[in-house]
């Protein structure tokens, strides 16, 4: 049975590629409609398709494996199927504003990545240093064992 759903998605869903993500999911499930940002920070999705496909679409919209997206809630309402939609698209606002905000956000993510990389490199350096110390200690112990074994052989024990 064909249905039409209006889905209000809240959480960190703007400026993180959520509308494009919704388009990919819709195409995967054969869903027609659109996704658009709302002034309150949420995203509205209008979707038409088969009831089972829409159920899978809604489940995937939770974006559990997406690193930047954080869906807090999906509020779904059903209305009469119209059959007027022929594809799924992401509706965008003012191009210049959208690009400015995305560039700003991209810079913030890049800064965070650099900080994480620096912390990671520091941890790696500490690990390498610890491994070198362990290797030195291991050599010392091996030398001691070799001397003990040599002494045992020299004394004729064994």
Automatic annotation (TrEMBL):
Q: Name one Pfam family in it.
A: Acylphosphatase
This protein's UniProt keywords? Hydrolase
InterPro entries, alphabetically?
Acylphosphatase, Acylphosphatase-like_dom, Acylphosphatase-like_dom_sf
PROSITE patterns referenced in this protein's UniProt entry, alphabetically: ACYLPHOSPHATASE_3 (PS51160)
| Enzyme class, broadest EC rank | hydrolase
Output the Gene Ontology terms for molecular function: acylphosphatase activity
Which top-rank group of organisms is this from? Archaea
- List, alphabetically, the SUPFAM superfamilies matched: Acylphosphatase/BLUF domain-like
Q: What does the record give as the active site?
A: 19, 37
Reactions mediated catalytically: an acyl phosphate + H2O = a carboxylate + phosphate + H(+)
E.C. designation(s): 3.6.1.7
Q: List residues traversing the bilayer.
A: none
- Record domain Acylphosphatase-like: where: 4-92
Homology family:
Belongs to the acylphosphatase family.
Please state what the protein is called: acylphosphatase
Native source species? Methanospirillum hungatei
């Amino acid at each position: 049975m064909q249905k039409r759903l209006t889905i209000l998605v809240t959480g960190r869903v703007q400026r993180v590629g959520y509308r494009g993500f919704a388009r990919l999911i819709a195409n995967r499930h054969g869903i027609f409609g659109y996704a658009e940002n709302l002034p309150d920070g949420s995203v509205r999705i209008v979707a038409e398709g088969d009831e089972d496909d829409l159920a899978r679409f809604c489940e995937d919209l939770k974006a559990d494996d997406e690193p930047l997206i954080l869906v807090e809630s999906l509020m779904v309402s059903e209305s009469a199927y119209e059959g007027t939609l022929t594809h799924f698209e992401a509706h965008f606002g003012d191009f210049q504003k959208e690009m400015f905000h995305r560039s700003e956000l991209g810079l913030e993510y890049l800064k965070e990545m650099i900080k994480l990389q620096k912390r990671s490199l520091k941890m790696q350096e500490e690990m390498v240093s610890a491994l070198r110390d362990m290797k030195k200690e291991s050599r010392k112990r091996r030398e001691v064992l070799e001397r003990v074994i040599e002494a045992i052989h020299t004394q004729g024990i064994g």
